[in-house]
Amino acid sequence: MSSALENLETQLDLFIENVRQISIIVGDFQPQGQQVLNQKIQSMVHGLQELDKLKSQVQDVHVPYEVFDYIDQGKNPQIYTKDCIEKALTKNEQVKGKIDSYRKFKSHLLAELSSSFPNEIAKYRAVRGDDRPLT
């Protein structure tokens, strides 16, 4: 699979370079450059044919739609993974904070309930098998 991806990357690089050269030729078109332009267009068609041949080798590769959004926004798609990790870390911190808050709330709630309803909390703790002292 790695070889197929490398071949695809090479073909895409060649295709992009060819399109860049065509844009330069067309942007500053001179009639004597028609032959060169025709050759570049033929080269572009050949590049598309080569890319079409490679599609069967990489059809099992799945790219998240968000990567295409990055490309459409002019961002480097290689930073997609970095951004995903940063978002996951941020979400992890938020969830950890919520868990800590719920633990503190449970502890305070049990402390208050045990002072108001000691018998019921003792039964509750016996059913739960919780022998730890309330803090």
Automatic annotation (TrEMBL):
GO terms for cellular component: mediator complex. The keyword Oxidoreductase does not apply. Keywords: Activator, Nucleus, Transcription, Transcription regulation. One of its GO terms (biological process) is regulation of transcription by RNA polymerase II. Pfam families: Med10. It is found in: Nucleus. GO terms for molecular function: transcription coregulator activity. Component of the Mediator complex, a coactivator involved in the regulated transcription of nearly all RNA polymerase II-dependent genes. Mediator functions as a bridge to convey information from gene-specific regulatory proteins to the basal RNA polymerase II transcription machinery. Mediator is recruited to promoters by direct interactions with regulatory proteins and serves as a scaffold for the assembly of a functional preinitiation complex with RNA polymerase II and the general transcription factors. Belongs to the Mediator complex subunit 10 family. Component of the Mediator complex. This is Mediator of RNA polymerase II transcription subunit 10. The gene is MED10.
